[in-house]
Design brief:
It is a single chain. The chain contains 5 helices and no strands. With about 90 residues, it is mainly alpha-helical. Helix 1 runs antiparallel to helix 3.
């Protein structure tokens, strides 16, 4: 698994949600959101991304938090912050 690419994907998603362009510059989204609260679903996604980044840092990223099995690459491609394999998520 390419952990650097996974980290990059998660960090870029986080930057977009918080109104930063991937290069770290403020985006037009941040201008629109100035003084606005993030919608609930975006706050949840941000939390999931932060937890996934913490798992990357501690070495448990890519393993299901319930059963301990590997999370399929295809699943992580679609849901990079997921803490569960497909079987446990169902």
């Amino acid at each position: 698994m390419n952990f650097a690419a996974r980290r990059n994907t998660l960090e870029n998603k986080r930057k977009r949600l918080t109104g930063m362009a991937p290069d770290g510059a403020p985006s037009t989204l941040s201008a629109r959101r100035c003084g606005e609260r993030l919608p609930h679903f975006e706050v949840d996604e941000l939390r999931q991304i932060d937890v996934a980044l913490a798992r990357l840092h501690e070495g448990s990223y890519g393993f299901c938090q319930i059963c301990g099995d590997d999370i399929a690459e295809e699943r992580l491609d679609k849901l990079p912050a997921t803490p569960f394999c497909q079987r446990c998520a169902d």
